[in-house]
């Protein structure tokens, strides 16, 4: 738990409430919007809230860190259900909750039908007969019944209607008393959720957030029918925070893949320009602060220096740039490089360098560390390449120009 944001960073949060089976095992988590680490309620359940939950879960924490190998339920607003906003993740381990506030018309039915056809599982949240949501019962995998608000006289009919669809599992939610839990047992509800079992937990982390300008610039570059990969790579590489999010997003897409990422180019190719566009759109909806220009320039200077030193140790310059960038970002957001490496789909040599400081990339990082702390004797003992003073000045000029270029474009 991070008590306060470091300069140039912000705290990001996501709520997580367990869903239990009849044996008391946690089989899923509902992910909830939380605006602060001490928030008890969501405060809002709109498109902004859903976008922030998605972005924070998949690109700040990493889905594995939030739910592990369990299923996650995510609230969906009309914009996501109809395809106005595209879901930037696959159907694996995710259940889409149709909020009770969504007006179920033909457009929503068509959208949910399309999502179900793609393999997404559908849950109907706070289901009430007569609200129009019964139109989605043939598509549903889960129906959530709020026993705190349910009218006992109507419960039999609602349960009977759900049981006409054999694949539907009923989630009893709003459980606050032993009597409500006993009612769940009497009806044979497969899943349960509520304060009597477990209250939501708020997960909090420090995050370096890309600037809105960079996001808009990236969306502009991606909007062209003939999107230029080199331009996309240039925009991403100039923003350490955006680089980190692209890596985490590629991790969510490539879960279980055997390939590991060793460069920003490889991450972008793995993720695909279409997915990059989807994440960038969500980041615009998720409107947050940016790092300072000085922090950005310092991080890029370190990465550029690592890139230059790499050949002296037989290390790949692109991999060295990434390793240097990740260590700089780790310092900015108060995390260890090893903790970040654990969340990213990095190649083995980068992972070993970040976690244990081994290999040729580990040597690169040690030399750059020694130079930055002024230990020139350690630099001389380990590095036989060109004098680094001129290289550092060139790296500083390059990073300053890279940061200024985006600021001047505003």
From TrEMBL:
Domain HDOD per the UniProt entry, residue ranges: 208-392
Gene3D superfamilies per the UniProt record, alphabetical: EAL domain, Hypothetical protein af1432
Domain of life: Bacteria
All copies of domain EAL, residue ranges: 1-214
InterPro entries: dGMP_Pdiesterase_EAL/HD-GYP (IPR014408), EAL_dom (IPR001633), EAL_sf (IPR035919), HDOD (IPR013976), RNase_Y/CdgJ (IPR052340)
Alphabetical list of Pfam families matching this protein: EAL, HDOD
PANTHER family associated with the record: CYCLIC DI-GMP PHOSPHODIESTERASE CDGJ, PTHR33525
Name of protein: Diguanylate phosphodiesterase
């Amino acid at each position: 738990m991070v008590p306060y944001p470091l300069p140039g960073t912000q705290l990001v949060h996501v709520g997580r409430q367990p869903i239990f089976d009849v044996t008391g095992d946690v089989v899923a988590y509902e992910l909830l919007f939380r605006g602060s680490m001490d928030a008890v309620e969501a405060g809002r359940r709109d498109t902004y809230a859903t976008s922030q939950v998605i972005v924070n879960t998949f690109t700040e924490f990493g889905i594995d860190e939030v739910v592990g190998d369990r299923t996650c339920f995510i609230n969906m607003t009309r914009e996501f259900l109809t395809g106005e906003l595209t879901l930037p993740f696959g159907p694996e381990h995710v259940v889409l909750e149709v909020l009770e506030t969504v007006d179920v018309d033909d457009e929503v039915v068509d959208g949910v039908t399309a999502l179900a056809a793609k393999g997404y599982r559908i849950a109907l949240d706070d289901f009430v007969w007569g609200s129009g949501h019964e139109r989605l019962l043939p598509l549903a995998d889960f129906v959530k019944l709020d026993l705190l608000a349910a009218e006992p006289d109507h419960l039999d009919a609602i349960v009977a209607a759900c049981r006409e669809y054999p694949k539907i599992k009923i989630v009893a939610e709003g459980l606050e008393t032993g009597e409500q839990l006993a009612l769940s047992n009497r009806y044979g509800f497969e899943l349960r959720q509520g304060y009597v079992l477990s209250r939501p937990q708020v997960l909090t982390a420090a995050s370096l957030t890309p600037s809105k300008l960079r996001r808009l610039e990236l969306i502009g570059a991606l909007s062209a029918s003939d999107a230029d990969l080199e331009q996309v790579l240039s925009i991403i590489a100039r923003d350490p925070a955006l680089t980190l999010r692209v890596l985490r997003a590629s991790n969510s897409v490539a879960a279980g893949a055997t390939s590991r990422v060793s460069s920003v180019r490889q991450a972008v190719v793995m993720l695909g320009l279409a997915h990059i566009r989807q994440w960038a759109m969500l980041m615009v909806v998720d409107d947050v602060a940016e790092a300072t220009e000085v922090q950005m320039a310092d991080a890029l200077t370190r990465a550029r220096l690592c890139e230059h030193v790499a050949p002296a140790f037989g290390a790949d310059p692109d991999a060295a740039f990434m390793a240097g960038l990740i260590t700089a970002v780790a310092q900015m957001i108060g995390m260890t490089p090893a903790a970040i490496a654990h969340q990213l789909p990095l190649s083995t040599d980068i992972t070993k360098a970040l976690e244990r400081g081994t290999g040729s990339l580990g040597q690169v990082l040690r030399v750059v560390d020694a130079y930055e702390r002024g230990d020139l004797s350690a630099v001389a003992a380990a590095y036989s390449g060109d004098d680094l003073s001129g290289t550092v000045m060139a790296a500083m000029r390059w990073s300053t120009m890279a940061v200024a270029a985006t600021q001047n474009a505003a």
